[in-house]
Amino acid sequence: MLNADCEMIDIRMATSAEDEVLVEHYLKIWDSYGTPPEHYRPDAAGWILSFIRSGREERCLTSFFAIVDGEIAGSVSCQLHQSPFPEIIRPEQRLLGYIWSVYVEDAFRRRGIALALTKKAVDHLKSLGCTTAVIHASDAGEPVYQAAGFELAKEMRLKLAAD
User: Fold this and answer.
1) Element holding 77 (H helix, E strand)
2) CATH number reported for the structural domain that contains residue 123 in this entry
């Protein structure tokens, strides 16, 4: 596919042999939010790797890479959503997919790669029979996801302070 700059972007499925790249990208996302290193679990990389591997087995987790000029420019992961409550609606009526870890390397940003990755994840979730795709957006990601057709949805939160 070509981006707005007529640059060729190839989107391909990631293999399990490339899981370490996905781990690295996920950690870079949290770094970009300004997360202090001491806030990470000591086993953060192993925890992410375990999540990816179990997600493949239990939630149809699939990841994709954007390749530009032979380099991995970014990645995205998607999977069947893990409901926090008992789902009683039949899957053909309500099956949620979840997109997470949309990441683009600094050198490749603002070239349509995040949008291309997001659209690929949406297409994949559709192929699994999902009726809705869910994503939690950062401030920087929100315009990208709106361009992909996502709408703001209600979610309420309450920060719980330690006593």
Assistant:
1) strand 71-80
2) 3.40.630.30
